[in-house]
Amino acid sequence: MKRMTFSSAGAAALLASLIASPALAQTTAPTPETATVSEIVVTGTRIQTTGFTAPTPTSMIGEAQIQNNAQPNVFATIVQLPSLQGSSGSTTNTFSTSSGQQGLSSFSLRGLGTIRTLTLLDGQRVVGAYYTGVTDVSLFPQLLIKRVDVVNGGASASYGSDAVGGVVNFITDTHFNGLKGNVQAGVTTYGDDEQGLVQLAAGRSFLNDRLRVVASGEWAKEDGVGPGDFGLDLAGDRDWFTQTTMINRNVTNDGSPQYVMRDFAQPYNYTKYGLISAGPLQGTAFDQNGQPFQFQYGSNGVPSKAANGAVIGCFPGFCVGGDLSGNVDTGRTLQSAIERKVAYGRVGYDFADNNEVYLSFNLGQVKTHNQPVNGENRPGLTLQCANPYVPASVQAACATAGVTSFQFGTSNALLPNTEVHTDRRQYRTVAGLKGKFAAFNSDWSYDAYYEHGVNKTAIDVDHILLTPHYNQAIQAVTLNGAIVCADPVARANGCQPLNIIGGKTPSAAALAYVQPENGPFQRLRMTQDVVSLNFSGAPLNLWAGPLSVAFGAEYRREFYTVRADAYGAGVSDRSPNTAEFPADPVLSTVGNNWYAGNYKNGNGAYHVEEAYLEVDVPLINSEPLGRANFNAAARVTDYSTSGTVWTWKAGGTWDTPLKGLRLRGVTSRDVRAPNLSELFAAPVTTTLPNFLDPVRNVNVVAIQNAVGNPNLTPEIARNTELGVVLANPSWLPGFSASFDYYKIKIDDVISSLGAAQIVDLCFRNILPETCGTYNLNNTSGPNYINVQSFNLASWKTSGFDIEASYRWQRPLGLDGNFTLRALATHIREFITDTGLPGTAPTDSAGVNTGATPDWKWLAIQTYENDRFSLTVQERWFSDGNYGNQYVVCAAGSCPVSTAIAPTIDKNFMPGAFYLDIGGTYNIRQDVTAYFKVDNVFDHDPAKSPAYANPALYDIVGRIYRGGVRFRF
Q1: Is 469 helix (H, G, I), strand (E, B) or coil?
Q2: Is 488 helix (H, G, I), strand (E, B) or coil?
Q3: Would you say residue 32 has pLDDT above 60?
Q4: What are the C-alpha distances in Å from 907 to residues 254, 259, 387, 827?
């Protein structure tokens, strides 16, 4: 399969032409005092009037902090803010084959998910990098970023759909003048994840500063942290993995906890090179050479020899300890390898004073790859005793026991491990007008633009089982003295026998049959078109100051189309049989033939028309009472898919008579419309390799199918924030602090039940309707669970943010400045109500298997002078648990375990503290060398029942970085 390529030659040529100018080194960047009005950007509001203060709390990350943090991707700096919870990056989605979201760098505010945080570039929307609509920050021109504003609150009335959790707005230096660059390298203490970063930007003015040209290019590569071996060995000699597993005893009323947490859990239905897992020969395992031996069960387990494969003395599905060499989880990539190439250019021309016409383009490519897991474990297989690959001693044992077949499970360690390659390319162009004009005896600003964005994503999976071929290849017989596939139809269509007893390397023909060269693929194309017109001004002077107004309208169209291979998606006009995927009677024509990566076809589109009005009314402006304003906005939005909705906000600020003390508050009605994925997505399949079938009390391999629902309606949120700000008081110059309480309630949340919930609701007869959505003992195809999104649930979360900073000039009489900054978020509650009968609301605040710890904070201390700087940073989040619904109890003292209050023996998951240290040294005024060490103490992640939790914990370890940046 030919994969996409990308060239940045055009951007390089533009940079070269700018650098070649002899006058470039003599120019300097404009100071804030000389910047034009058109450069003013205030995130969280559309009002651009000088002196206006928005009531919505906003955290700002400046260029200096971005540089001091020395990350190869600015995403890694921003995501450290405490209010960002549940963002995706290169360490998330690495355990998946089918999600299609590997390597996406997308933000999530308040733990509400990446689809509820709106990410903007210079206040403008960016085409999504996946059909959930989320953007990929890795595709942004990062060297030109001046600051990043994080609006911690609903902003739908100002910016439209998706801004339920807030907005992250990247402000770039569109008028940069000069030349600057950055070269950086890094490596972990384990010698992996080698990193390289090269960035260059240039800008120049022409025609008496009326014509401005800016260009930048960057290349970054992180090798990632690859998989470990089978068993317990992680990559690079990391030793923190202990196969911690939450085991469901599937017994609820014997006085002992239903769930137990155990280290060194041993699945007893498969091993690295094969295990007879049920019946009279149960416990016979095979070594790499295919020789049988007695398997060492943990927990002093004794095989029951029963048909269900139970092991006496063990838990359902697992023993503890014993032979762990076949465990597969350590084969998961800890951090995806990622390579970024980004080119950016902008041309602006002042056709009049303070009026600019501009054209910008952004080309980006992000390539990632990961290994989801070691092997492709297959429990529950049936092999015939007469199979010529079965050792003679086992055939004799079959005869003695009077059986002709046996149940078999294997990790398939003899086969190459699966790899997922993702290639995203983005093409984005913006043409616009912005500036200032006089009307109605006042100054007005305007901003009009058209944006066209295209994102193309190619996903290719290598070395993965074609399941029906595998099922046929392992059933071998001897025919005319040769070992062949047993099924004559399969044999006639190219079947090659495969010996899965032991670990001998398969023949090239057998390997090509069960893992074809042409594996699953997906080709996604997304387009976004936006036309936006905005005005801001102060048409009237009132008793306390000018009345400020902003209004505008926007049209947006989103479209996606995706196609996949015939074996995964099913044979159709869009996915026909081809020379690469020929017709084969062994395969299902409706798809789902792959072990994982069964991508589907689909397409969909919607358009949005909206208009808004925002006003700021000064209420008080006097010395004895201070200064107060009332801010309000309303937006009407018409979705082609779900009709018309209104959003609004109302709030204000009061600068009290006490110098530096400000009160602020805002409440808003926000919306999130269903995205293309939720509305129209073709099924997204996920393979669940060790899924519990509670009816038979065995673990099985199952495929989860998530499908779209065109009948979804928008989510409706109510967001309220109240805060107090103390800025630069006379008794402590240089100090500022803020405290903000927030509460968010979302109704009609678009969500789906998890696969385990669906099965459990049927098994407990709580919601019998779910019983028809799955089959875990499917004799005519793969086991499956179908999930679909509905407007079922409601969410409620509340807490508060604290931010403080202090700048001490000439500390202890030394030259330079000492700056302290600290930010913290406390989540009081995060309650999810599924709205289903027989269920109760759950509170995930403090659940450290997720992304919403009780407390999360970031503290930074920096000393700097004209020659050098030193930065110390601390990151911390609090202790938590596996779930607030659990009842902790010991054997003999447990109440009856229920779906609402399940019992468990342990429910503690520690928090973590990370220390980072960095510094700079000015070799000369315009050249700076720097270093950074993250996770100085190499703190390991906590034990987790889900392998590890990269949403909270650092799973890579200590990393060293160093580089040189320059600016002329």
Answers
A1: helix
A2: helix
A3: no
A4: 20, 10, 47, 19
Compute the distance between CA of residue 586 and CA of residue 464 in angstroms, rounded to an integer.
Answer: 17
pLDDT digits (tens, 9 = 90+) for 730-764: 889 999 999 999 999 999 998 877 888 888 888 88
C-alpha span between 853 and 637 (Å, rounded): 35
**Any idea which residue has 């040189």 for tokens?**
964
Report the alpha-carbon angle 456-461-462, nearest 5: 140
Beta bridge partners of 13: none
Residue type at position 952: L
Tell me the residue type at 409. Answer: G
Supply the pLDDT for residue 42.
55
Reduced to 3 states (helix: H, G, I; strand: E, B; else coil), residue 711 is coil
If you compute the radius of gyration of the chain from its CA atoms, what whole number of angstroms results? 30
Structure tokens at 439: 């009307």
Instruction: Assess contact for 155 and 167: CB atoms under 8 A.
Output: yes
Phi, psi of 942 (to 5 degrees): -70, 155
Q: Does the pLDDT value for residue 18 go beyond 80?
A: no
Per DSSP, the residues of 514-561 read HS-SS--EEEEEEEEEEEEEEEEEEEEEETTEEEEEEEEEEEEEEEEE
| Distance separating alpha carbons of residues 420 and 102, to the nearest angstrom | 9
Distance set, CA 857 to CA 83, 292, 631, 823, 844 (Å): 9, 55, 30, 6, 18
Residues forming a β-bridge with 384: 405
The residues, any chain, with a CB within 8 Å of residue 256's CB and separated by 6 or more, are: 249, 891, 892, 894, 903
Task: Tell me the one-letter amino acid at 900.
Answer: I
Burial class (CB in 10 A: 0-12, 13-18, 19+), 914: buried
Query: What is residue 179's three-state secondary structure?
Result: strand
Rounded-to-integer distance, Cα 79 and Cα 848, Å: 17
In the block, which residue shows the tokens 């805002």? 666
Please choose, from the candidates 297, 227, 294, the residue with its C-alpha nearest in 3D space to the C-alpha of residue 267.
Answer: 297
356-360: long-range contacts (C-beta < 8 A, 24 or more apart)?
356/36, 356/38, 356/433, 356/434, 356/435, 357/432, 357/433, 358/174, 358/430, 358/431, 358/432, 358/433, 358/434, 359/429, 359/430, 359/431, 359/432, 360/174, 360/429, 360/430, 360/431
Helix (H) or strand (E) holding 918: strand 912-924
- Chain segment 192-211, per-residue pLDDT in tens: 999 999 999 999 999 999 99
667: buried, middle or exposed (CB in 10 Å: 19+, 13-18, 0-12)?
Answer: middle
SS (H, E, C) 734-761: CEEEEEEEEEEEEEEEEECCCHHHHHHH
Mean pLDDT of all residues in 444-455: 96
> 10 Å Cβ neighbour count for 753?
23
Residue 33 in this model has a pLDDT that exceeds 60: no
Residue 469's φ and ψ, nearest 5 degrees, are -65, -45
Helix, strand, coil fractions of the chain, as percent rounded to 5: 10, 45, 40
As a whole number of angstroms, the distance between CA 114 and CA 86 comes to 7
The model's pLDDT over 557-601, given as tens digits with 9 standing for 90+, comes to 999 999 999 999 999 999 999 999 999 999 999 899 999 999 989
The answer on pLDDT for 877 being more than 90 is: yes
Element spanning 954, H or E: none
Enumerate residues 6+ apart whose C-beta is below 8 A from 89.
75, 76, 79, 104, 105, 950
Provide CB contacts within 8 A for 935, sequence distance 6+: 914, 915, 916, 954, 956, 957, 958, 959
What is the Cα–Cα distance from 35 to 179, expressed in whole angstroms? 18
Rounded Cα–Cα distance for residues 105 and 220 (Å): 14
Backbone torsion region of residue 214, taken as left when φ is above 0, otherwise alpha when ψ lies between -120 and 50, otherwise beta: beta
Question: Rounded to an integer, what distance in angstroms lies between the CA atom of residue 398 and that of residue 34?
Answer: 89
Q: Report the alpha-carbon distance of residue 13 to residue 19 in Å, rounded.
A: 10
Checking if the pLDDT of 312 tops 90, the result is: yes
CA-CA distance, 556 to 609, in Å (whole number)?
7
Sign of CA pseudo-dihedral 834, 838, 843, 844? negative
Burial of 484 (0-12, 13-18, 19+ CB in 10 A): middle
